[in-house]
Structure formats: structure tokens, C-alpha cells
Amino acid sequence: MIGDMVRGLVTTIKHVIQRPVTIEYPEVRRPVQPRFKGRHWLHRYENGLEKCIGCSLCAAACPVEAIWVEAEVNTDDERYSPGERYAKTYEINYLRCIFCGYCEDACPTEAITMGHMYELSLYVARRRDLHQG
Amino acid sequence: MSETVTIYLDDRAIEAPKGMNLVDACKLHGVDIPVFCYHPKMEPVGMCRMCLIELGFEQRDRTTGEVVLGEDGKPLVRWFPTLQTACTQVVSEGMHVRTTTEAVRRGRKDIIEFILTSHPLDCPVCDKGGECPLQELTMDFGPGKSRFLYDEKIHLAKRYPLGEQIYLDRERCIQCARCIRYVEEITDDPVLQFYERGRRLQIISTSEPGFDSKFSGNTTDICPVGALTTADFRFGARPWELDSAASICTHCPVGCNLTLNTRLDRDAGGRVIIKRVMPRQNEQVNEIWICDKGRFGHHFTAAPDRITTPLVRKGGKLVEATWSEALELVAGMLKSAGKAVGALAGPTLSNEDLWALRRLVEGQRGARLGVWPPTMTGGDLIAEVGVAQGTNFTDMGKGACIVVVASDLEEEAPIYWHRVKVAADRGATLVVVNGRATKLDRYTRHRVRYHYGDEVATLNGLLRQALGDAAPDIDGFDQLRAALENAPAVDAAAAQAIAGATDLVVIVGGEGLSMAAHGALMQAAANLLVATGHVGRPNNGLLAVWPGANTQGALDMGFTPEDATHIIDNAASFEALIIAGADPADEDPRAAAALQEAGFIVATALFLTPTAELADVVLPRMSFAERDGTFTNGERRVQRFCKAIDRVGESRADWQIFQQVGAALGQGRAMPTPGVVMAQIVERVPWYAGMDYPTLAEVAPQFPMVGGEDLYYGGTMYKNAGGLGRQWAVAAEQASYQARVRVPKAPAAPKPGKGELIVVPVRLLYDQGTEFYKTQLVHRRVPQAYVALNAGDAARLSVREGARVRVRLAGTEVEVAARVRASVPEGVALLPLNLGVGPLPHAASVGTVAVAEAVGA
Fold first, then answer.
1. Taking CB atoms and an 8 Å cutoff, what residues of chain A touch B236?
2. Are residues B210 and B86 in the same domain?
3. What is the pLDDT of residues B267-293, one digit of tens each?
4. Which residues from chain B sit within 8 angstroms of residue A73, using beta carbons?
5. Residue B168 contacts A, CB cutoff 8 Å
6. Fewer beta carbons under 10 A from the terminal one: N or C of chain A?
7. Whether residue B560 sits in one domain with residue B532
């Protein structure tokens, strides 16, 4: 009978002495692969000006039409990017985004890249957005 | 052009009209030859070298002229040793062309590579990117890689304003000179030129203000690269992101076909707005051109001061109300007004609006339907001898004669001017009959000048001279002959030109004319056409330069300018007035006071105009971009326009409003769509028979075949998929037509006394019209209010250029700046309308001009 009990617990005991495969998220975070495609980042030059020129090629490349860009003319008083054109509006709809990374490929100025951040369900922000007003 | 020649295109025999350009001929047979500098509407120059082909001719025996045959029995072809430019060739019998050989491919590749050595390739920030001929041809024929070092590229000014409206990017320019040729050859505003040479060759504007042309926007369409772009659309959107809707311009009677490109904009509160206005090809109306007023004058649709809700007068003030409240009030007031109901319809009401308004008024047994502004008349004559169906300025050349009377066409209807001018270039004879010099004078020897007030006598004189002793058998001719006895001899050469013309079109404007005088002038013009037998055939007949985009439609729907004058003159007798999309209080000095007398006034308006401020109920109407409908242009072509943007606020279309009021009055159910209203028009208005919406939306192949896959051929233009419209036939085209002339009854000419001048109000293209002036971009082109005087008169009145003067005419007095111009005839003062100095009379009258300080002293 004891033999039967031991035989029945073999798998359990084996797992007791093995290292656990789960990690204690969010206290512990597992690193992602270097080329992981998470949240997008729009980058700036070292002098603080935006790399994005509002050309909308990312939006054109986007297979799910998640990106919305509106361009405007830089003036000397109000300058966002080095050239004449900048993105007045830049929106990514994360409900639509499929993280394919085509936007990154399309960008002529390397302004948009996909970062490692994957925590996109922001409960507080979402709640505020939903309930305000 | 019926004669054809046979040419061999890639060893395939094709027929092409004799004298046709080789690029066009190939295009006609489905072979695209890439071009940059060649444009089907302009003379070829062979500058860009992109259209290289292999060219050969069949050998002919020098003694006999026979084609030499080879051993295989086929003609021997002598090929040019080098590649030739196709655009500089005209098709001729026995021409052999090869467009697909290795040599041709190589030649095109090298030309593209060469052009790109000086091109910045900044396509991501270029407004042309996505619809750029250079981009497309590089993808099709380019090398894919440049051997040229980037650092050796030439760098020139990138954002150079040629004027306020057009920006030039000198790096992107490939020196095809399409823009320079367009303004020099076609619009004759030689304001652009090349400057410097070699790789620094660049375009400059030589005028002040820069790029001073009324057609400057067209150069941005025909520019094969992003060198010329409009300030209006600067970074507005990428072309592939735009939606488009077919529309019709509302600024003048030409009825240019437009495409409204729209896109959502966060700055506009997430609304869809018009991003740019592009011409839509209609070879019978505007070809591929539009004027700058049409291109840039669309901002009123999104102006922040649009009326968004119905307004009802309570306690002397207009306060916001709901639609049901306002409509109920209007219906109640109309009911109690009984028969004493009148309507004034504005210039941009669609045919559906007009029909619904007519039904509403007639349903109440009202009889007065006025079309605003009541400056021109003669709709009956247009219906009798208007330009016949199929009339097209593009078909007019040698043998045709175009008479322009009492109109500064470039200011009043720029695309008429454009097409008349090009017809004159093709050899059409132009006779310009006017009281003063206009730009059209440059293209003719026949400039007939009259004293203001003698317009009718002048046309009568021309007719007498043109007829000579001939006595056509026409009803009423004997009386007319008797009346013509006293007509002055005017210009024998011009009369000769009219008499000798195979085709004759008379274009009648209304400059300086009262409505009665205009009616007489229209009759005189009709007589000229009928007596010389130029009616009822294509390219013959009468054309009026109406004051509004849909004045013709209003006349067709039974509205008359005579009723409009009657309403203003007898406003007190109207218990209820419906003023739809019109602004009499701002345009007629008598109207503001007269409207105070009227009973209940309901106005539909876009803005709180002076007329709307006088109204008891103001209803927000939709602009042309927010709804569907049809307009009828000056040539009686009924054309559809479609909804492009969402309505502003709670605005409704005029036809909806009138139908809803009618429904409340028990006139029957409101019709659901404008198409249904049109169906009713088709049924009841005989001229419009068969013009239902699907018919009006039909398209047919047009030449040149612009748009589609080959933006490089005609410029940035898209195929017309919105319809070409239909022109209705006039009485003279019917077999039952009885030619008839009548004696025109001209009112007496104004006779200035000592110290007095004839003050002639004139229309300018760039004015402070409520709708046009909402476009900020054009403000610098709208002049300060002025009066133009002859140097002699100015000296006599001691008026200097720029001095403030008081102008008095017909009970109105305004203070404006003086301009001294040699083009103004002696004894005449030209006073432009609509420049923000309040309402002015439209007819020429005796008046005075005096220095302002002197009056005060």
C-alpha cells in the first residue's frame, strides 16, 4: 500500500525538488529577446528635436490601419523637428496594432522603433479614460 | 481632323489623325511614352529627353517617290542612327516607331539617372510623393541605384514662396518649364522665368505680388515633380490618404468640375474637412483647369462662424431654437401670410433647392419667385438661341468668331476667358466689345469701344454693318431693319469678321448695365446671331456670363430677376419673404431699407449676413460640399455634385428645409432624397427631360486621356468618374423653330453733366464676397476699395494716385482710394464691387469723384 502511495506521489515529489518554471511577475520580470516587438517609441535627436517628419509612411505600411498621422509646418518659433515638416498628430490605436513592426521598416528617419515594453493594459489609465466626464 | 495616316508602332500598323503629336497618337493606341516636359495641352519643346524612341521612315525612291521594297516585299525603313524625342514628332505616313527596344529602355534609364543627379529624393516630406510623375517613371524605367555621389548634389532653396499661394522647391525642379510655358503660352501672364544656367537653372517670379496669375494653382497640377506646391495644401495629407468626392465650383457660372479631397483632421475637432480642391477633367467645361478662386475659395465650408442652429427672433434678438420650433413658426407665418409670399433665391442654390422652394411658394399661391442678384436677364433668349448642344470652345479655331460684349471675362468667369483665349490662339477671330480695355483685347485686332450706355446701339451697328444689304427672311426683320437705320457705323473690320464667320458665339456680360439695359443687350446679341444665321448649331449661339453659379438653373426653375426687383421695390406688400442663400442687404443699397418694410422674413444662410440679421427666422443651410444636388452652368449643362463632408452643426439642405415647411403646411410628404426631387424636375421641366441622376453621372472617354495610371502625361489629375453632365437643347435646335428678331429697347444712356463722370461698377474675381473672403490665403490679393480714373480726369479733379476720394453715384456715397490708370476711358470712373465699402448699385450711372478732404472742408 505504501508502495502504491509513493508511486502515486512520484510526479508530485519530483516537482517539489525541481526549480519552479513560473516567475513571480510583477515582482520578477523575465527579460525579452532583443528583437522583441513591444510598445512603439518615437525617438528624438540628441538636441531634443523629434526624428519623426510626419511622412505617414508608417501609416501607409500598417496592415491594420492603426496609425494616424497629421503633418504640419515647423516654424522658427515653434520647432519640433529639424526639417520643415513634423507630425502634428501621431496616434497608434493599440486595440488594432498587431505588433508586426512594418512601421519600423517603413520609417525613413528611424524615428519609430518597437521597444520591449509589453505591459499595455493600464488599468488606472483605462479606467480614467472610460469614466471621465 | 477626319484625315488619318498610317504609322507603324512597334511593328503594328495604326491609324492616327493627321497632324497629331506622336506621343498623343501612341497614347491613343494604348502605348504610353514617358514624358516630363511634354503636355498634351501645350506646344512641345523637347527639353527633358524622356520620350526617347527609335524612329524611322519608309525609304522612297527619289525619282518616282515610290516606297522602296526590300527583298521580302516589305518597305525598307531608314532608321535614325540615334534615339529621337517622340514629343517633337508629328505623325506622318509611313512613320515607324519602336518603343520597347533595348536601346529605348537604356535611353530612358540614363535620362532618369541624369535627372536624379540633381533631385533631392525627399519624397517622404514632399506633397507630390505618391502622385509624382518622377517617382512613377523612376520606378518604371529608372536604374534603381545612382552612381552619383550624394555630397555632390546641388543644394538650392527648398521653400521659396513664388507668391503667397505657391511654394517653389528649387532642388526638386527638373527644369521641364511646363509652368513657365503654361503662364506664358496659355494664360499669358508672363510672370515666371528661368534664372541662371546649368545646374543652377531655377525658376523665379518676376511680378509683384509674386506669381501674379489667376491660374497659378494649375501649375502645381502640371508640375511633374514636387517643385510647385500650393500653400493651401502644404503638408495637408499624403495623397493616398485622401478621400475624394465629385463636385462643382460655386464661384461663377462656368461650373468647373471639381474633385474635393477630404480627410479627417484633429485640429477641426476630428471632423472631415476639405483638404484641397482639384480640377476634374471635363473637356466641354473646364478641360483640366480651374482658377485660383475655385481652388482656394473652399474655406468657407469649414469657417468657424457658420450658423449651426436655427435662430428665431425673440424680443428683437435672434436666439437659438430647435428645428421643430423654427419650422413650426415658419409654417405658421406662411399660412397667415396667404398669397402675399415671395421668394428670393441666391446664386448657389441647387436645382433641387429651387424646385422645392418653388413648390413651397406656389403651394401657398404665391407668385413671385425672384433670382438674386437681379442684374442680368434674358433667360428666355438663352432658351431660344443659347449656344447649341455640343458647343465646345476647344473645337473653335479658324473660321469661328467669338464676340465678347460688356464683360471683363477674366474677372467674371476666368475659365471662359482661358478657353476663349486659347481658341483665339488656334485662329478663332475674337471681337471684344467693351467700354474699356480688358486683358482679352490683347488677342484681337477687333476691339470695339463704346461709351457706357451705348452697348445696344453698338451691337446694332455691328449687325447693320455685318448684314450690309442682305435681308434675311426672318420674322420681325423689317421692323428691326427700320430700327437699325439709325445705328451708328462701328467697326467695319469687326463687322466683316462677324459676317464671314462660319461659327459665331456671342458672350454677353452685364458690366455697368441695369437689368433693363442688359435685357436689351441680350436681345441685340440674339438679333446678331439670328440675323446672321448662327443659331441652332454646335459652336453657335448666345452665352450669358451670369452673376451666379446656378443663375441658369434658377431661370430654368421659373425664377426671374424681374420678380427679385419687384420684391425689393414692393417689399412692404409681402407678408412673408423667403430669402434663400441670398444676401440682398449687402449687395443692393435699396434692399436693406426695403426689407425692413417686409413682413415676416425667413432666411436660409451659411453665415449671419446683413440679410440674415434682418430676418425673423434664420435657418442654417448646408454648403455645396455637405450635400448632393445639381447645378446648371452658363452653357446650360446640368451637372451633379456630391456630398464630401459632414454637415456643419444642425444645418440642413435648402430642399429639405422647404419640403419640411411644405409638409407642415399640408403640401404633401417631404421627399427623401435630392434624386427624387430631380426626378420631379425631370417630369415637369421639359428642358430637363431624361436628366435623372444616373444619366448625369455618366462618363465617356475624353481626350487627352489624363488621370489613371499615367500621371506624367497630363499632370496630377484623376479620371473623371463623377459624370460629365448633360446640356439641354434650346428652341433653335428644334425642327419647329421659327427664327425671330425683335427690336431691342435700350433705356437712355447716362449723360454726365459738367464735372460729372460715368461711374461704372465692375466685378473683380478677388473680392470680399462672403464665401470667398473666408479664405485667409487670398486676402493679400483682394485690393483695398478703390476707384480707377483716367489720367486726364484725375488731373482735372486734382486726384492723385492713392488719394482718398468720395465717389457719389445714384444716391450712394463711398470713400475709397483713387487709382489712376491709362486703361480707363476718359469721363469714366471704374468702381469695383464687393470690396467692403457697403452695397453699391450695379448699373453705371452719372456720379462724381472728389478728393475726400475737399468735401470735408
1. 71
2. no
3. 888 899 999 999 999 999 999 999 999
4. 234-235
5. no
6. C
7. no
Q: Where are the beta strands (DSSP E) in chain A?
A: 40-42, 67-73, 85-92, 112-114
Looking at the domain that runs over A37-115, which CATH code has it been given? 3.30.70.3270
B158 to chain A: closest CA residue:
A84
pTM (two decimals): 0.93
B436: exposed, middle or buried (C-beta count within 10 Å: 0-12, 13-18, 19+)?
A: buried
Query: Residue B770 pairs with which residues in a beta bridge?
Result: none
Provide the mean pLDDT of chain B: 94
State pLDDT tens for residues B755-801: 899 999 999 999 999 999 999 999 999 999 999 999 999 999 999 99
Contact A84 B237 (CB under 8 A): no
Identity of the amino acid at B215? F
What is the spatial distance between Cα B632 and Cα B630, in angstroms, rounded to a whole number?
A: 7
- The CATH number assigned to the domain holding B679 equals 3.40.50.740
Of all residues in chain A, the one with the smallest CA distance to B123 is: A55
A21-35, B450-464, B549-563, range with the lowest pLDDT: A21-35
Same domain, B412 and B324: no
Amino acid type, B271:
R
Together in a domain, B355 and B461: no
Looking up residue B87, the CATH number of its domain turns out to be 3.10.20.740
Contact B432, B321 (CB under 8 A): no
Name the helix (H) or strand (E) containing B544.
strand B541-544
Tell me whether strands B160-161 and B202-205 are parallel, antiparallel or unpaired: unpaired
Domain boundary among B500, B523, B544: B544
Residues of chain A contacting B237 with CB distance shorter than 8 Å: 56, 70-71
Name the B residues in 258-317 with CB < 8 Å from any A CB.
265-267
Say if residue B529 is in the same domain as residue B390.
yes
Task: Please report residues of B whose CB lies closer than 8 A to that of A60.
Answer: 238, 240-241
> Is residue B133 domain-resident?
no
Q: Which residues contact A6 (CB under 8 A, 6 or more apart)?
A: none
Interface contact flag, B241 A85, Cβ < 8 Å: no
Q: Answer whether residue B734 is part of any domain.
A: no
Query: For chains A and B, what is the number of CB pairs under 8 angstroms?
Result: 37
Residues B416 and B526 in one domain: yes
Q: Are residues B331 and B458 in the same domain?
A: no
> Is residue A61 less than 8 Å (CB to CB) from chain B?
no
Q: Looking at CA atoms only, how far is residue A86 from chain B in angstroms?
A: 9
b/e burial code for range B765-803 (CB count within 10 A of at least 16 → b): bbbbbbbbbbbeebeebbeebbbbbbeebbeebebeeeb
- Residue ending a domain, choose from B500, B517, B544: B544
Convert B322-338 into a string of H (helix), E (strand) and C (coil): CHHHHHHHHHHHHHHHC
Does residue B105 form part of some domain? no
User: What mean pLDDT, rounded, does chain A reach?
Assistant: 88
Question: Which residue, among B235, B266, B272, B273, would best test binding to A if mutated, counting the most A CBs under 10 Å from its CB?
Answer: B235
B617 domain-assigned: yes
A38 Cα to chain B: minimum distance (Å): 25
Interface contact flag, B124 A55, Cβ < 8 Å? yes
pLDDT, tens digit (0-9, with 9 covering 90-100), for B288-339: 999 999 999 999 999 999 999 999 999 999 999 999 999 999 999 999 998 9
* Structural domain total, chain B: 5
- Domain range for B765 is 757-855
The answer to whether B266 contacts A89, with C-beta atoms less than 8 Å apart, is yes
Interface of A with B in 78-107 (CB under 8 A): 83-85, 88-89
Q: Complex ipTM, two decimals? A: 0.87
Q: Are residues B187 and B171 in the same domain?
A: yes
* Amino acid letter, A88: K
Give the three-state DSSP class for B784: coil
